[in-house]
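Q: Here's a chain of 97 amino acids. Please give me its 3D structure as tokens.
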Amino acid sequence: VFTAPGPSTGATGQKHFVDEHRVELIQRVSNIEPILDDLLQEEIIQQEAYDKISALPTSQAKVRELFSSPLKAGDASKEAFYQILKKHEKMLIKDLS
């Protein structure tokens, strides 16, 4: 059975959207708190990571920390992050797509 790839990954094994746009996401994601709330609710991050990331002083530091730990878990966590970004950062995702 063939299943079409989602919007964030290609069938040819190209980089995941969040990997491909890592630098832009770190620089441009501004509304990180509701994204962290959703990641916690979806169990992509645990309470300890949520608290650690929330305590960081800037949005850039928070997104950078997400990339350095929870998003290293694999494509499932990256895909969840991508879907949450589409919800909270619609214009940014549209701009990068």
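Q: Can you summarize the key feature?
A: Residues 1-6, 8-12 have pLDDT under 50 and may be disordered.
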